Amino acid sequence: MCGIIGAIANVDIVPVLLKGLSRLEYRGYDSAGLVVVNDGLQRLRTTGRVSELGKLVIQQKACGLAGIAHTRWATHGEPSERNAHPHLSGEKSRIAVVHNGIIENHEAIRIRLKAKGFKFTSDTDTEVIAHLIAFKLQEEKDLFKAVCLSLAELQGAYAIAVMEEAHPERIVVARNGAPLLIGVGKNGNFVASDSSALLQSTRNIIYLEEGDVAELHSHNYRIVNCLHNQLGDIVERTIHESHLSSDAVELGPYAHFMQKEIFEQPSAVANTLEMVFNAQSISPNLFGNEAENIFSRVKNILIIACGTSYHAGLVARYWIESVAKMPCNVEIASEYRYRDSIADPNTLVVGISQSGETADTLAALNHAKKLGHHYSLAICNVPESALIRQTSLRFLTRAGPEIGVASTKAFTTQLASLLLLTVTLAKIHHLLSKDEERHIIGALRHLPVALQIALQVESQVKIWAKSFAKKRHALFLGRGVHYPIAMEGALKLKEISYIHAEAYAAGELKHGPLALVDNEMPVVAIAPNDQLLGKLKSNLQEVHARGGELYVFADVDAQIIESKNLHVIRLAEHTGLLSPILHTIPLQLLAYYVALERGTDVDKPRNLAKAVTVE
Ligand code: G6P
Known about the structure:
Layout: E1 3-9, H1 14-24, E2 31-37, E3 41-46, H2 50-59, E4 66-72, E5 87-89, E6 95-103, H3 106-115, H4 126-139, H5 143-151, E7 156-164, E8 171-176, E9 181-184, E10 188-192, E11 204-207, E12 212-216, E13 221-225, E14 233-234, E15 240-241, H6 257-263, H7 265-272, H8 274-277, H9 291-297, E16 300-305, H10 307-323, E17 328-332, H11 333-336, E18 347-353, H12 359-371, E19 375-380, H13 386-390, E20 393-396, H14 409-428, H15 434-454, H16 458-468, E21 473-478, H17 483-497, E22 500-505, E23 523-527, H18 533-544, E24 550-555, E25 566-571, H19 579-598
Parallel strand pairs: 16-17, 16-18, 18-19, 19-20, 21-22, 21-23, 23-24, 24-25
Antiparallel strand pairs: 1-4, 1-10, 2-3, 2-4, 5-6, 6-7, 7-8, 8-12, 9-10, 9-11, 11-15, 12-13, 13-14
6-O-phosphono-alpha-D-glucopyranose binds next to helix 10.
């Protein structure tokens, strides 16, 4: 999704803007732009990459002491230069705006402003903000006040940064439903939608809260909160020191962030489970101080999420129902939020999200609360995200920043956390003996090593990827707890290689998809040695007998023999409950190497965004 960076200092800030934008590239974008005050507003925009913007900066000698910049992921209006941010308004003293999120009432405001003579040059909702502020400035000469008054008329979730040509000594920024933070530097102040964009300038970060509007100067800043008062009351916000290492957001020796993140999984899972490794027993407090009390009251679980996080929830359903013996529903957030479902006060609502900013997941959790659900838990990778602030309990996956749009280490750390949740629930409800608990802790301690071993299939997967890359469609099959893993494998492949891939519960094959099977339709199967293996083997026979080409990821002891059109890669260990976590690894590698073969933009697949902060 869109990204914002702004800077005001006593030196040229253009390099800071460009570096910040390049750090925001991972969020997904289709155009980029910046404005600096350099003897008037100087605006550069491109539908190319941030590196293209860098070339424009050199050609047009852009420099300045204050500026705002943006990467845009199109929502209103096609990806084009005229729709790229910043958007300008005003005549005598122009203003410039960059914006993340969506203004829901933009059409009504546009009609009003057009009637007052404002000329629109883009199809974006953002331009409405620029003209509205310019309009308010006609009466209210102060930009800060004009912004506050304009925000009172805007509906939607957004973050903005605004500059005025006549007063280049300040940037005004505001947050309402989309993340925005201030970086407090020694020689300047900064604003960004993501702390990784500020690492080169400062580690002192203020996370703005809902309704905050701030004015930044090179040596000071002030924040007011306009949630209950149009013109706002001054508020103090804590400065946090960011511990994000720049290595975490740099590629290092890897070709892509996705590759780096796939190989980081052993350490990401180890970090996530660190508190368990050092303990003799699992403490409910890992989920928050109130966890024991809440967990002992809940009788069923409702999981809400989107995309890959939703797949993690689907895996958890199998675990929760079989180990913790609780009914568990898993809902796609964008569906749940508009459904009149029946609330049960004994339900624990679990929101899973890597970013903690996914608009549908946040709205679905609010919807659950309004329906009468009391207990909520966030499983999230970003400590300062909106999701974390919204729930009664929380568990942080400690995967570190995930940059590749296709989620990998976030997924496996979510699974590790959900397994921990399962055993905690089972323990509190007296369904787990001491021995069983010790056994599970032992298995979790071994998980990072098991993941390391699973990664060794890389060279075999690379060979498969060569023939796979020539195909246009693929089917993924799994059964039981590995069915959602098949779904995740299909999602990874379609996201980054653009091969059409669908997952089916293997038992459903003969109810439709078998009609598609021929030698042009590779079928990927996940074949762990579990109680469903016999059934799965029959399903594979059905494919084989019809000339389909099978690519099977089996457990070492699954006894599936290679033959013509039946290729097998074996995972070295058979790990019971943890099996879905390990079986994810070869599927991620397959998607990655197929995408490499096809020459796609692995980390920034077309049309997709990392954090979907709009509905
Ligand atoms: C986007 C990302 C996916 C992610 C999904 C949910 O579609 O590209 O990788 O799984 O959003 O995101 P969340 O941050 O809520 O897990």
